Amino acid sequence: MSVSRYLMVLAALLALLALTAGLALLKLGPFNTILALSISCIKTALVMSIFMHATEGRRLTIMVSLLGFIWLAILIGFALTDYGTRASLPAPW
Amino acid sequence: MTTIDAAFYREGGLRSWLTTHDHKRIAILYALGITFYFLLGGAAATMIRLNLVNPAGSLLSAETYNKTFTFHGVVMVWFFLIPSIPTTLGNFLLPLMIGARDVAFPRLNLASWYLYMAGGLFTVAALLAGGVDTGWTFYTPFSTMFSNTHVYLVVIGVFVTGFASILTGVNFIVTVHTLRMPGMTWFRLPLFVWTMYAVSLVMVLATPVLAMTLALIALERLAHLGIFDPALGGDPLLFQHLFWFYSHPAVYIMILPAMGVVSEIIPCFVRRRIFGYRFMTYSILAITVIGFMVWGHHMFVAGQSMYASLLFSILSFVVAVPSAIKVFNWTATLRKGAITFEAPMLYALGFIGLFMLGGLTGLMLAAPALDIPLTDTYFVVAHFHYVMVGGSVMAYLGGLHYWWPKITGRLYSESWARAAAILMFFGFNLTFFPQYVLGYEGMPRRYHSYLPDFQALNVLSSAGASILALAYLMPIAYLLWSLRAGQPAGNNPWNARGLEWQTSSPPPEENFRHQPVVREAYAYDEAAP
Amino acid sequence: MTAAAQVADQYDDAGQQRYAATLGMWVFLATEILFFGVLFASYAALRFQYDQGFAVASRHTDMLLGTLETGVLLTSSSLIALAVRAVRLNERRSAVTLMAATAALGLTFLVMHGFEYYKEYTEHLIPGIDFSQPGVHAHAVELFFCLYYCITGFHSLHVAIGVVVISTLAVRVARGSFGPHRYTFPELAALYWHLVDIIWIFVFPLLYLIGRGG
Predict the structure, then answer these.
(1) Is a pLDDT exceeding 50 seen at residue A84?
(2) I want to staple B438 with a disulfide (CB 3.0 to 4.6 A). Which of A75, B106, B286, B443 is the partner?
(3) How many Cβ pairs within 8 Å bridge chains B and C?
(4) In which region does residue C124 sit, left (phi positive, over 0), alpha (psi from -120 to 50) or beta (all else)?
(5) Could you tell me which chains touch chain A, where touching means 3 or more CB pairs under 8 A?
(6) How far is CA B480 from CA B63, B477, C77, in A?
(7) Quick one: which of B312, B94, B326 has its CA closest to B200?
(8) What is the model's pLDDT at position C2?
(9) Strands annotated E in C94-192
(10) Is the dihedral of CA C75, C80, C81, C82 positive or negative?
(11) Among positive and negative, which fits the CA dihedral B327, B333, B336, B337?
C-alpha cells in the first residue's frame, strides 16, 4: 500500500474531525449526538479497513474485528430496554 | 512399579513443571489448583450446612456466616467452576482432538495458570484475613458504601483471575481456527471441541465486562468515583446489569463444557454415534449467543422496568430450547444402544437427570410471576446447585474418570468409582432436593438462622451434604491410589472412537508420533509413517 | 542482515504462525472493546437519565484541547501504519523515525491530558479529591466527571502502555530484529495502537461535544 494512500486517509480523518467539532457547535437537538457518532463510525471504518488491514486478509478477520462491537451493542441495547422504559411505568402505589 | 509411560511425567522435576509449555502438563497443573480451591470451597460449604442443622444457627455468628457463604461462592464460582473443565480437560484434550501438537500460544497458556493461581491465593488470603460479607455477587450499594470488609482486595483478586480466563479463551479460539489437522473441517470436530470453542467465545466476550465492573467497585471505594452511588443519582441497578452481563453467560461457561464432556462419554458407552450431530453444534452456538441476552431475569424484583423483564423472560424461555434439544439428542443416542454402565457413564447419566431438573426449575424462575415470590429463597439456591453441581461437577468428574487412563496411563478401580458415582448422585439429591421444598415454603437464602418449622428439611439437607462430602473425597483417594498401583491402561481402554485414543497413554510430548488424518467425524486414520 | 522468522513447534510454517498471532490480537482487541464497553454502557445508562446535567458538565471540558488530542492520536495512528509498512519494505531508518514520532505523539497526548486535569483541579471538578459545583445539576455533573475520569484515565493508561511498547519496538527495529520476513510483533503493536485511537474517536464526541450548540 502506498504512502500517499495512508496520507489521504489521514487527511480524511482530520477533515472528519473538523466536521465533528463544527457540527457540535450547531444546535441540532438529538442529531448532535447521532451525527457525531455516525462520523465516529465512519472514522473507525477507515482506520480498521486501511490502517489495520481488517478487510484485506481472510473473512474471519473481519468477523472477529466486528465481534467486540456487536457484543457491546448487545450490552448497551439490552440495558437500554430497561432504562428506556423505566420512567414511563410509575409504580402503582 | 516403574512403567512404560508414566515416566513422561517424572522427567525434569519440579522446575520443568513450573516452566512447562506443554498443554498436557499445564492441564495437570490446573487440575491441582482446581482441586485445591474445590476443597477450600467445600470446607466453607460444610460449615454452612453444619450451621444450618439447628434453627438458631448457633455454630457461626451472623457475620461469620455471611463471610462463610461469600467465601464459598467466590471460591467455587471463580476458582473452581469457571476454570474447571476448560482449563483441565480442555487444555489436555483440545489439541489432541484436533490433531495439533500444542495450543497456539503455549507461553500464554502457562501465564494464565500463574495468573489464576496468583489471583486465587490473593483472594483466598483476603477472604481469610478479613473476609467479605457481600455474597459472591458484590451488589452495590452494599459493597461500595456499607460493607466494612475487604471488598476491594477480593475484587482485585477476581480481576486478576479474569485475565487467566481471557488468555485461555483467546488461546482456544485461535487454536481451533488455525491448528486443525488436515481434513478436520468444522462439522467433523468432536462436540467437546465445539463446546470448548463456544465457551472460549463466552470467556473472551464476557470476562472483560466483569473485570471492568469490579474495577469500578474498587474505584468507588478507593477514589470515590461513584457512578453506582445513589446519593449522587447514580444507579446501583446499573451494577447488576453489568455484573449479570458476565455472570449469566458465566453459567454457560460452566455448563457448555459439561455438555461437551457428556456428548463424548455417552456415544462411547452406548456404542452408537451421537444422535443429531449438526443440531448439537447449532444448539451449542445458539446457547452461546442467546445466553448473552437473558441476564435481566436476575433482576425481576430489583426495580427493572416491567417491559425489560418481559423481554428477558421471553428470551430466557428461548434459550431453554437448544438446551432441551441437547437432552433429547442424548436420550435418543441411548435408544437401542448397547449400553454399559462404567463409572464415566454413570456420571453422564446422572448429569442428564440432574441437569434436566435444574434446567426445568430454571424455567419456573424465568417466569416473573413465579420468580417474584421465589427470588432469594432456597428454591433459587437449589436450582443453581442442580445446574452447577449436579450439572458441571458431575460432568467434570465423569470426564476426569473417562480420560483418566489417557491422562495418567493407569486404570482406577472400577467398582470404587461406580460406588462413588452412585453415592454422589444420592448424596446430591438428598442435599439439594429438600432445598427446593424449603424455598417453595418460603425459607430465604443467606440467613444464618431460620424458623423452627424448617428444621426437618434442613437436617435432611445437611445429612445429604455429609454423604456428598464423602463421595467427593472417595475419587481423590482411589484416583491417587491408581497412580501407584493401577493397571496400565493401554491406548484405548474404553474402545472409544475419538482421536485422542489413537495415541499412547499418556501421549508423547508432540502428541502424535505420526500425523493423523480424518475422513469423517469421529473416524480417524493414522497416516503411513 | 534480515532476521528470519522462527517457527514454533506447534505450527507448520511461518505464515500459519503469523496468522495465528494476528488472529489472537484481534480477539484480544475484542476484549478491549468490551473493557471500555462497560464504561460506554454506564455512560449510556446515566446520560439517558441526566441528559441536561451531562450537557452542563460537558461544557466544563476543554473542547479545544480535546480536538487537538484527537488530531494528535489520528496522526500517530497513520504514522505507526506507515512504520509497519517501512519495516515490511526493509526501510529501517524511516521505520525507526516513524515509530519514535508515534511514541512522541502519544506522550504529547498524555501531557495535554495532564494540562486538562490540572485545569479541572483548579475548577473543583475532580470527584473524590475536590469537587464543588453550584446549580441543580451538581450531582449529574459529578456523575459525568466520575465517568470522565474513569474513561480518560483508563484510556490514558492504554496510551501509556502503547508509548512504552512502541518505544521498545523502535529500539528493536533499530537493532535489526525485524524485517520483511519478520514483522508480526510490529504489526500487532500497531493494531493495538489503532484500537486505542478508535476508542478515543468515540470518547471525544461523547465527553467533549455535548451541549455545545447555540
Answers:
(1) yes
(2) B443
(3) 111
(4) left
(5) B, C
(6) 38, 5, 56
(7) B94
(8) 40
(9) 125-126, 130-131
(10) positive
(11) negative
- The segments of chain B whose pLDDT lies below 70 read 1-8, 521, 523-529
Cβ count within 10 A of residue C71:
18
Residue C4 has pLDDT above 60, yes or no: no
C102-112 tens-digit pLDDT = 999 999 999 99
C147 neighbourhood in chain B, CB within 8 Å: 227
Asked if residue C207 lies in contact with residue A20, where contact means CB atoms within 8 angstroms, the answer is: no
Helix, strand, coil in percent for chain C, rounding step 5? 75, 5, 20
CA distance A44 to chain B (A): 20
C-alpha neighbours within 13 Å on the C-beta side of residue B447: 16
- Give the pLDDT of residue B525: 62
- CA angle at B80 for the pair B74 and B83, rounded to the nearest 5°: 115
Query: In C120-144, which positions are buried (b, 16+ CB within 10 angstroms) versus exposed (e)?
Result: beeeebbbbeebebeeebbbbbbbb
* Tens-digit pLDDT profile for residues C164-197: 999 999 999 999 999 998 999 999 999 999 999 9
Query: To 10 degrees, the CA torsion angle through B380, B382, B384, B386?
Result: -150
Q: In terms of DSSP H, where are the helices of B23-61? A: 23-51
SS3 B520: strand
Q: Do B238 and C42 touch (CB under 8 A)?
A: yes
Indicate yes or no: CB of B104 within 8 angstroms of CB of C50: no
pLDDT for B58: 87
Residue A2, pLDDT score = 85
Q: Which chain A positions have a beta carbon within 8 Å of B238's beta carbon?
A: 79
Q: Cβ of B204 under 8 Å from any chain C Cβ?
A: yes
Torsion of CA C26, C32, C34, C38, to 10 degrees: -170
Contacts of A68 in chain B (CB under 8 A): 205
| Nearest residue in A to C51, CA atom | A30
Answer whether B227 sits within 8 Å of C37, measured CB to CB.
Answer: no
Q: Do B177 and C37 touch (CB under 8 A)?
A: no
Does B290 reach chain A within 8 Å, measured CB to CB? Answer: no
d(CA B391, CA B261): 11
What residues of chain B lie within 8 A of the CB of C41, using their CB? 241-242
A76 vs B229, residue with greater confidence: A76
Picking from A59, A65, A78, A82 by the largest number of B CB atoms within 10 A of its own CB, the best residue to mutate is A82
A46 band by pLDDT with thresholds 50, 70 and 90: very high
Q: Which of A1, A5, A9, A10 to mutate: most C Cβ within 10 Å?
A: A10
Contact: B170, C28; criterion CB under 8 Å: yes
CA angle in degrees (0–180, nearest 5) for A38-B246-B316:
90
- Identify from B247, B307, B311, B314 which residue to disrupt to test chain A contact, counting A C-beta atoms within 10 A and taking the largest count: B307
CA distance linking residue B130 with residue A32, whole number of Å: 50
**What are C131-146's pLDDT values in tens digits?**
888 888 999 999 999 9
Residues in a beta bridge with B377: B444
Those residues whose C-beta lies under 8 Å from the C-beta of residue B220, and which sit 6 or more positions away, are: B140, B144, B226, B227, B228, B229
Tell whether C139 is within 8 A of chain B (Cβ).
yes
Mutate to test the interface with B, among A61, A62, A78 (most CBs of B within 10 A): A78
Kindly report the nearest CA distance between residue A19 and chain C, in angstroms.
11
Residue C38's pLDDT is 97
Residues of B in contact with C42 (CB under 8 A): 216, 227, 238, 242
Buried/exposed B326-339: b ≥16 CB within 10 Å, e otherwise: bbebbeebbeebee
Q: What is the pLDDT of residue B424?
A: 97
